[in-house]
Amino acid sequence: MRTKHEGGHENAKSRNKNTRTYFFRAFVFSWLVCSVWLVADSNGLDPARILNPLGDQWPSYSGDYTGRRYSSLTQINQSNVKNLSLAWTARLAGGAASGTPAPGTAPVVVGGEGTGDVVVAGAITVKGSILAVDGVLYVTAPDNVWALDAHDGHTLWRYFWKTKGGTHIGNRGAAMWHNYLFFVTPDDYFISIDARTGKERWHKEIASFAQQYFLTSAPVTVGNHIIVGTGNDLAAQIQSSGKADFDAVIEAVGKPEAWEAAVQLVRKGGTVNFFGGCPKGTTIKLDTTLIHYSNLTLRASFHHTPRTIRRALEFIEAGVVHAGDFVSGECPLSDLPELFAAMAAGNQAVKTFIRVNA
Question: Taking the model in full, what pTM does it have?
């Protein structure tokens, strides 16, 4: 089987020792005789397109804002899904490129705050959602972003971030706003790159690496805002000037600074729901003038009731919420004491699945 590698061919022996590769596969109907070639909009992804029913594009982490990941396309169904076959295979390379690029090789853009001395152990794998916008696939893994031609899988460009370290358990994907891509890194940076070239526009540290925060989440485009979060923190990068103007803001991390920030993010007449409970005795400072003259509604909710837990389970069963997105590991029941010890030592796991019968 022949594969494409960064838009050209390369002898495997010449790859840098820190370069990691893996395969990416696409499936199409083997009997399909026609294809649709999309013409890219010069302005990229208009955020209003994310409001459209999910069809031949996949412009955000869950496809659209419903989170159902259900396409309105009907060409593939239960009767013909068996006819799917392999269309192409592409070999994706990670890490910084070395030496002079071969003619025809896709460009590699290197950024980062690290020195390049940190070598991440283990194979890099794609665990996030892949954006599909106007015939281009945008694929992410920790410290890496690729743009692939959806028709044959060849690499259009690649971006590599030289990391300072951190927990490289995965990357959930990127967000897109017009011609700009946004993604996060394990060492707590929020990065914007040009979706047409892979060139970096800017990067910002949004959590303290010294305090061992780490980022894996996929940013989300909401109008002219890009929302990205990490455990116990939240950052909003606003692409247009002016104050944030959300209709409702739900605070769900239980930190006093998040409570105070939530009030600043809501529009006039908007609502703030303080869902995350802070420890007993916690106090916060709120701008009473802002609350009064902006006619804000502040609410608090407590979620540990049988009705709300039952409702949450119904969401998981119906596929509205994908529980697997919140599970970062698993272990047998016999290893439970070791797991508790690791959690107490700060193992940074999000949720761990316990296999009772293992």
Answer: 0.61
